[in-house]
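RECORD TYPE: inverse folding
INPUT: structure tokens
STRUCTURE:
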């Protein structure tokens, strides 16, 4: 990313309405719904949807790139880079003399308002370790936020199941895992619960239950109030790699995936190896509820729950592994919902990356102090501490360790097939 692009996005990020804060506006939107019933609310006409149903991944990837080229609201001068960041992608194990077939496959599913870029670091590292890794692009994503006005979680689930079948055919004799972030983790669990060929799960910030008590209201509000906060003229609603505004219907579909995930666990639990990763200060997910479900419903002895925080659950479950989220030498106060995904070397979100998220729910005063040169700390959305200015933590200092732990979970699935 050029210096000019970098400066543009640092400025835009200060003004952004983040997905993380969307549910905090739901209760205010209830009052506005009655007005919408009387005066009506504008809805965006549909356009050609993201194509799905291809017979192989290569055709799906090519069709998705063509759709993005024709329909994306590009946010920078580097269209080629944006296509790469937002398109489905595949990583294969190292090739060359002495190369062996893939150990198996991993399909990675992004979250609400996100893109395949959010799982690029994980996909690349899994391939380096011998796995065939793929990402997909959920319908309603990659183009512009208004595309989510008519998105349906059922289409997301069908696409994940479709791509799972293709990966199972392409991954050789090894096991196939599903992985996902937030909403994508819910979808991965829902599909894996119905597909016994899936060997296990890699779930990052799984959104089984939202922190907000108003998540259920999004489906009721969506027909009457398309956006929880009125769009601001002249302000971009997306970045090169994700949406920064999400319509009410997007949150409604997110809630639907949460219901599916909890229902799957309630019906039969999940007895195959699984890695779950949560941040104690997550502003989106009720992580205590995730920990409870892990202890009761994820029954395989090789499963692990990574807890980034200073107060892990006192469950006595030795499968829960905690790491401190207060790292003062790096000016990290705590970990965020999105930060668990990225390597410190990520070019956009890593340490010193080109796309910092300055706006973090602390108000204009914190912005002025940062602009005046006050040292910036990093945290989850909305965290405040006297005497500190916080930006979003967008990378994981434990990234390599986290992948090592994922490796141990996946090895258990490999051993079960031998």
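DESIGNED SEQUENCE:
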């Amino acid at each position: 990313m050029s210096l000019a692009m970098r400066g543009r996005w640092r400025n835009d990020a200060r003004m952004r309405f983040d997905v993380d804060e969307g549910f905090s506006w739901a209760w205010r939107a209830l009052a506005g719904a009655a007005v919408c019933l009387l005066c009506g609310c504008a809805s965006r006409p549909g356009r050609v949807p993201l194509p799905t149903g291809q017979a192989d991944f290569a055709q799906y990837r090519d069709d998705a790139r063509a759709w993005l080229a024709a329909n994306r609201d590009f946010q920078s001068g580097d269209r080629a880079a944006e296509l790469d960041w937002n398109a489905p992608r595949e990583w294969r194990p190292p090739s060359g003399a002495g190369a062996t077939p893939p150990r198996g496959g991993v399909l990675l599913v992004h979250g609400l308002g996100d893109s395949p870029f959010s799982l690029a670091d994980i996909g690349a590292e899994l391939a380096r370790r011998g796995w065939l890794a793929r990402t997909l692009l959920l319908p309603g994503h990659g183009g512009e936020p208004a595309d989510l006005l008519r998105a349906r979680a059922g289409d997301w689930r069908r696409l994940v199941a479709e791509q799972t079948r293709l990966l199972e055919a392409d991954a050789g004799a090894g096991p196939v895992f599903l992985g996902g972030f937030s909403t994508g983790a819910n979808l991965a669990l829902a599909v894996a619960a119905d597909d016994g060929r899936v060997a296990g799960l890699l779930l990052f910030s799984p959104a089984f239950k939202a922190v907000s008590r108003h998540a259920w209201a999004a489906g009721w509000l969506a027909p009457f109030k398309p956006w929880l906060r009125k769009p601001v003229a002249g302000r971009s609603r997306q970045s090169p790699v994700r949406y920064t505004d999400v319509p009410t219907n997007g949150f409604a579909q997110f809630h639907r995936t949460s219901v599916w995930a909890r229902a799957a666990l309630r019906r039969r639990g999940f007895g195959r190896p699984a890695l779950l990763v949560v941040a104690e200060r997550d502003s989106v997910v009720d992580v205590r509820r995730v920990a409870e479900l892990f202890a009761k419903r994820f029954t395989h002895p090789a499963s692990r729950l990574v807890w980034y925080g200073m107060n892990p659950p006192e469950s006595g479950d030795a499968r829960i592994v905690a790491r401190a989220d207060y790292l003062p030498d790096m000016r990290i106060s705590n970990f965020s919902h999105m930060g668990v995904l990225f390597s410190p070397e990520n070019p956009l979100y890593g340490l010193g990356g080109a796309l910092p998220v300055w706006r973090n729910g602390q108000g204009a005063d914190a912005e002025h102090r940062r602009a005046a040169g006050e040292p910036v700390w990093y945290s989850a959305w909305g965290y405040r501490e006297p005497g500190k200015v916080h930006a979003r933590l967008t990378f994981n200092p434990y990234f390599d360790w986290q992948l090592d732990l994922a490796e141990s979970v996946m090895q258990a699935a490999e051993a079960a097939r031998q």
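NOTES: The chain has one domain: 3-325+399-417.
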